[in-house]
Amino acid sequence: MRCGIKHIFLPFMLLLFVACEVRYPKDIIQPDKMEALLYDYHLVQIMSTDIAGSEYKRKLYAEYVFSKHGVTKEEFDSSMVWYTRNPKHLYEIYSSLEERLIAEVGDESKDNGKSANIALVDSVSMEGDLVNLWRGPRLNLLSATPLMNRISYSFKADSTYHVGDSLEMSMNVLFIAPEGDIKQQAHAAMVVEYADSTFGSAGCDFDTSGSYIVAIPRNNEKEIKAVRGYVYYNDCDSLARAKMLIDNFAVMRMHPEGDTDE
To answer: pTM for the full model?
Structure first.
């Protein structure tokens, strides 16, 4: 009798399993392939941080990664749009990805004082009225793990900085969690040190996904000596294993209108 019951219910259970299986749109990069692609993508972004001409080389490396996995940048971008609209699936990918990244770059990061999402730059010499000083990855994953919980930078000014320059840190933030609404917070701050040893600063706290800008107004009287800043992620529910994805991270320096480097 018991064997009969097993035979009756087994087909039903198999049908139930198939019905409950997650179905992903056919026109997006599927989870396993997306994880492998993102792993390579993040890795080349991390490894190219300190390479001269890194912005150009990161683009070349990104193109190589897309070619390696047989996708186009457009396919990658559209797939990321779908995953960000379905954060549970994105969370699952990044949970696995985080473990791999820490295993691969964690020991080296501890040795040199950097995390996979931190780029410390002692000096940046760039000309132009509008310059992105940030040389690190534009796409960053932050979590409660000490190795992965912040982005930071430090730039020493040189002759390309002008009196009256304004500074702005901008980013798109996506909080992702395994399920439901979980309290999450992050803090961003920016500090400018002037030649007369005074400081200017700006900062903000945020707990919802969206676009954020931290800006330091122009000071038309003081010469800039250095610029520092960070984004610190604080997972308020450590059991949640929640994460924060930062895209289009930038630190912009802008000359006063009509001022040039010539």
So the answer is: 0.64
